[in-house]
Batch of 4 targets.
Target 1
Amino acid sequence: MPRLWWIAKVVDDFTWQRSGAIAGVLFVVLLAIAGVIGGEPPAATDSSTEILQYLDDHETALRAGVWLLGLAILSLGWWFGALWRGMFQSERRTPLAIVSLIGLAIAGPLALVSAAVLAAAAAHLDDVGESATFVYELGTMLLAAEGFGLATHLFAANVLGARTRTLPVWLVVLGLISALSFLLSAVVTCAGVDVNSSLGLLAFVIWCLWILCVSFFLWTDTMFGRSGLAERTS
């Protein structure tokens, strides 16, 4: 029995972070595929005719995007599980790791509901009709609201990384830029400013780059390494 416990501990120490790193890369790949097949979406201020045309042309892609996003969220959860282990222990159980988790817990459902709304609208164009603008703007607002959750996640994770010195300064700056972009995108969407789609896209690109960098550090065990973690928890 003690031998089995030791094996489980070794597997956890040597594979948990690397499996999380792989999940982080998979998340970015799935998100990129969903974005490419979805094409360039119209602005929420475009005419209902343009919106209906987009939904009609991309019905299959929008349907596929729902399950791709679902798989991406599962991958993101696994990635964050690996990140959480080090965050929670390195900060000696202070709240920032929990705040970061809450941010992701808010963002994930909003993104999935947004994708589902657009896919359902594309599948029932005859029923949508003149309500196309409303339905499309609803999906856009839900996606923009996701930015509040992601901003919370990124602010907390990067402030924690800076405080515990588990993230390099340049990566903290990159994460904070993404967080600020998500926050601004969410705010200007409420004001009906057209720039929000470009700003939101920029925030997502920077966030994906941040995730890839974090995944690299998880894979190489240079963020929450066994020796470093032992020093911080001793």
Target 2
Amino acid sequence: MAPREVTCRHCGTRQRGAPAVCSECGAFLRLSSSALGHGCGTPTGGGGRRTPPPAGERRQVSLQRRLLAGALVIVFAAAAAGFGAFLYRAFSDWSLATGSTTITTALTTTTAGTTSSTDAGAGTTTTTEAPSPGEQIFPSESKASSFLPPSGGIGYNPDNLTDGDLTTAWNEGAEGRGVGEWVQFYFSPTVKLERIEIANGYQKDDRRFSGNVRVRVLRVEYSNGESHLVELFDDQGFQSVEPMKKSFDWIRFTIVSVYPDASWDDAALSEVRFFGSRQ
């Protein structure tokens, strides 16, 4: 009986012995009887019945196809995740840039008894006497999502924000540059604030101020459910922020964005002062 032959429909090479794949182009030659006439190879001898490939070859082909499918799934998933992250960052930047998310800019920057305020309409800066502080209210407790462990006898916990000392600071201790980290203050009894003053960054000295991350946008949340965004100046000294004029018993500051220029990754605030009345 003459040896069986198969002609590859892909490249036209005739194969002796009816192999599973074409020796010239690598195309599959054998198909099941249900797909006869629709593949790339047609037997030219040895009768009309096809001989199925060995079980080992079938398992190898199946494994190759599964690996290829898995690789494609991983590639598409990674591409989708990357594109989603890009869209999120782009939308966040667009929201901040266009004002789709309402942001209140800090009203003033106070240093050494004077106040520098920005006139948004004219784009100029004026200097006046600092406003009367009124009654300063101290929180009964403060908490933070994270803070750096003490180093060299220096602590970085949230109590530093209300100790009246600009040479101490709260430095968040999470991975990254502090976006999403928060500090929260509790009041008993409830309070109604007229003004909040914030000292941005680590103001112990110029090197630490420029070296640590400074906060650009804070989300201010209140126990009554209200919230707003505040954009801080990248300056030393105290910045005056206008709060919601309603009673509450806690207030939280969450870091939304930071200024990019810093040597270390830890975002910092040096001091927070509250002025108003107890209810």
Target 3
Amino acid sequence: MEYKGFYLVSEPATLIKGSGAFRHIEVGRSYLSKHFSISFYPLCKVPSTKTSSSAKVKPPKEIKIGRFKRWCIDIGLWHTIKDLKILFENHKSVVSHYKNIKARQADFIYERSSFLNFGGLIISKWLKIPHFYENNGIKFLERKRHFKSWLNWLWEYLEKTAYRKSDYVFFIGLRGNSIHLKTKNWINIENGVEADFLQKFVKHEKQFGTVINICFMGSLMQHHGFELLIQALAKMDTRQFHLHLIGAKFDAIVPKLEPLVETTNHGFLNREELVETLMTMHIGVIPDGNEFVSFMKLFDYGASRCLVVAPKLKNLKYWFTEEEILFFEKGNDVSLAQALTQALRDEDLIPNKGNKLYNKIAEKHTWDQVFQEKAAIISKFLS
């Protein structure tokens, strides 16, 4: 018997083609479908098919905030009201979603968690079927970090309660360790890479000439800490380096980079184009990140046998060793500059660490292995 699951997504931003979240969802749907009959079900409006690769970062407009609004923001009233509106909007259609999913006879719900959206969990309880969360961010922590609200304590309680009430939670990276749940219905799971993507580089050897190619992949956002990389490059002799940008939203920073280092902005690349480009790369850089976060780009870097230069984060130190990654001190541009310079001076560093990381990923971090583990857990609840 093939069990039928519904893959629920609630955030429109995660469905923008070209984003890391979109790729993660695509991977999840594809690999879960190897074990179950999976139907994709958005609880939100799906954005247009325009890819984020074409998005350009416009200079921020100066927004004038009136005294009353500023006062409301400062005391926490403004975002309290906004949060209550989000909570209402997220659940006003839960009954119609329930009817649709019931009519299509689901055996379980697999839901990507989002801020103040408990629709999938509620529907699963009404239908008396198992519910599973995939967590790619502790929402109340992210919200509290950026916005002042009188009800942050309540949002924390509701989110933790949702995790406890779900049948099982898959925390991506080391996020499960960050909220200290006392229940045993969760596990930390790292990201991975396609086995056929790894196979493209099975006999690959890095070729070295007069230039070392550094690459950064992503749809650029503030939390990527790209300014740290710019500061590090400003402290280095970069004549032997060439920086390659792969992804989206780089237009605004290229002018800052060009005086420091030779730079190429490749834009968004599909998986086949990415293989071709990574063949010529030597270093994959991760400038910054949250202590508990997983990075999909790391697995693409490692699959192509690049040396990964990354900050000493709890998640990375948990899953990988210093034999596999060249670590630098988090938030320290001097330490990052020293790491990149070390890679330039030590001709064995790139192939040694790059090959060891490749072997670790091939052994433990293919998508087939990741979702085999998830499917085994889900199957226990279905049987």
Target 4
Amino acid sequence: MDQVSFHLVPGEYWGIVGPNGAGKTTLLRLLCGFLKPSSGAVHVAGQRVDSLQPNQLARHLALVPQDSGSELDFTALEVVLMGRFVHNSRWRESPADRQIALEALQAAGARHLADRTFRTLSGGERQRVVLARALAQEPQILLLDEPTANLDPRFQLAAMETVRQAVDANGMAALAALHDLTLAARYCDKLLLLHQGRVVAAGPPETVLQPVILAEVYGVTVTVERHPRLGHLVVLTDSLLPAPSW
């Protein structure tokens, strides 16, 4: 990453977009403190991320990773309850914790999976349970690495709706790495377009999703139109451009 700077505030849903290898996952790992920047710093709630203990940081940030794992020998409800441990001094949930976990499962469209063993779930089902765990953590900032991966169209919409509603209802901030530019335009307030570890454009979808910019970054010609009924931008791929000589 090089000279990446932006400010995420409560009540905003940002999307990180860009081609494979642009640095989307790396940026999320820097924000979580999994990686340390070679220069500069990441701050959350006025404090440097690298100055916080893991349990302190977990009160501010929750991450929905790409790989949710598949061998956890716990029920889906127990996995979601793990998100509550940061709020407890003892590793034992209260009735209130259980209620919050069930509500998070409901919000993620996974309430019916509560008693299923996590390792028996499909990839898409696990993704919804991990999203519920992050919601149950009640963070100030929700970070998501390709939250619609492994999901069919119905649950892609459901996942994006869930995050949008959490941002609007709870005043949290959300930042999601996304490949689908149309989904990003529909649900995100602002976009951060990365290419080769640098910020190419940042701002509202109308500012970032410009055909000339997208052609340069993705190597394809695109048509950007406004959905006639829903009003958000729709990005349609037209054709490949010649590969750059460099």
